[in-house]
Amino acid sequence: MKIGIIGGGVSGLFSAYYLRKEGHEVTLLDKGSLDDGCSHGNAGMIVPSHIIPLAAPGMIAKGVRWMLSPTSPFYVKPRLNRDLIRWGWLFHRNATASHVERSIPVLRDLSLLSKKLYQDFANNSGIAFGWEERGLLMLYKTPEAEHEMAEEAAVANKAGIDAHVLSPQQVQDLEPETHVTVRGAVYYPGDAHIYPNQLIRQLINELRRMGVSIREHEAVTDFRLEQGRIKAVVTQAGHYEFDEVVLAAGAWSPELTKKLGLSLPLQGGKGYSFMLTEPPATVRVPAIMLEARATATPMNGHLRIAGTLEIAGTDLSVNPNRVRGIVQSVNQYYPELPVAMPATETVWRGLRPCSPDGLPYIGRVNHLRNVTLATGHGMMGVSLGPATGKLVAEVINSQAVSLPMEPFSPIRFSRT
Ligand SMILES: Cc1cc2nc3c(=O)[nH]c(=O)nc-3n(C[C@H](O)[C@H](O)[C@H](O)COP(=O)(O)OP(=O)(O)OC[C@H]3O[C@@H](n4cnc5c(N)ncnc54)[C@H](O)[C@@H]3O)c2cc1C
Q1: Which of 68, 140, 194, 328 has a CA-to-CA distance to 297 between 20 and 30 Å?
Q2: What range(s) does the FAD dependent oxidoreductase domain occupy (predicted)?
């Protein structure tokens, strides 16, 4: 079949990979240059530990508290915008214990499938992308966070995800080369990390080698619909006729689904990162500094610091106050790291495609026969990339799917 993929982030690229492996003729269209999007500068964590969706009880109250501080890790840019209001309402409706309970096995199975596919990819593709299985530390400094993390660790262990509560000394033992000042941590030994910039670069090279046509700087602007299917994908440069279309346009996906008659609740969740390059990274195990919601990931011999979640539509401007919030938090956990406010132009920013219930959108759009969505992965798009691509390929090939697809249905909010 002739397959068109819209979007060359991790979701689109892995979809292209698994579809091409099945012998399809694949064309990937991206509006940008595929060297700086959300799938590049992120924290690179592969997180089977993250089985609790963002929409969880307590998040609304926490979010409101955080919004009062200019350097806090969470912010919603106030806008009188119908899509944002609908998203917020759906988030609120899903921030319940029963939603969390239902989502835990769903996220766990998707994450474990993805980790397995990453392991296969690391072992068999001949592609190096910094794959390391050193686990993840959730570092905390306050009794409140300790309590929250102990509860999450118990939930994880019950769900079959290994989690260990560590004392400050046990944390220090895992980090022999730098001082860590914490009250404790939860250690998830099953997590992993990658160097995402390298993954994306290598995937693009591999796809080209496999014969995928990759067209950069070619934004999709419209569709021609005919008899319940996409007849043509219209771009700035012309139009394409495909048998099947995969829509993986990240935070911009709703702009395109609107043209297909689907109102997709999805907001861009902006985050920032920067590299600490001197001296070479001394942090061994990737970590989330819990109270600050900032991350530290050893990568390519250096350390990537990342954080914040600003619900800001598709605004890509850098807010120095939020970056300062990340910078100020690092030495509270790692007092010896030489961290200083980076020049604004060196700060990377990306838009996480956030669904309101914390589950991705993967699957068919009922009213159009030849469209499959692959977006909405929020904070876990890199982690879930291979599983997403595999499921997309299975759906398009009408094969038995590796996991039940109902929880990921792109039309699950259509009636609300
Ligand atoms: C600070 C930060 C840290 C993160 N850390 C992690 C982490 O540790 N682990 C993890 O798993 N995830 C992490 N994430 C989330 C992860 O980066 C995203 O979920 C993931 O990159 C989303 O990938 P995507 O392919 O869905 O979207 P994107 O990477 O945004 O790709 C979408 C592509 O679609 C293209 N596009 C849009 N509109 C059009 C159009 N009209 N025509 C053609 N092309 C179009 C865009 O140019 C873009 O290239 C982090 C994100 C941030 C911001």
Answers
A1: 68
A2: 3-394
Q: Pocket residues for ligand 1 (CB within 6 Å)?
A: 6-12, 29-32, 37-39, 42-45, 219-220, 248-252, 256, 271-273, 306, 350, 352-353, 375, 377-383
Interface predicted TM-score (ipTM): 0.99
Residue nearest to atom 19 of ligand 1 (CA): 381
The CATH label, of 3.50.50.60, 3.40.920.10, 3.30.930.10, 3.40.50.880, for the domain at 2-408 is 3.50.50.60
Q: Helix (H, G, I), strand (E, B), or coil: what is residue 389?
A: helix
Q: What confidence score (pLDDT) does residue 261 get? A: 94
> Torsion angle of alpha carbons 164, 166, 170, 173, nearest 10°?
60
Q: Tell me the mean pLDDT in the region 339-362.
A: 95
Q: Which of 53-67, 96-110, 178-192 has the lowest mean pLDDT?
A: 53-67
- Give the Cα separation of 414 and 93 in Å (integer): 15
Which of 35, 50, 136, 382 should be mutated for ligand 1, with most atoms under 8 A from CB?
A: 382
For 240, residues 6+ apart whose C-beta sits below 8 A from its C-beta are 4, 27, 29, 232, 233
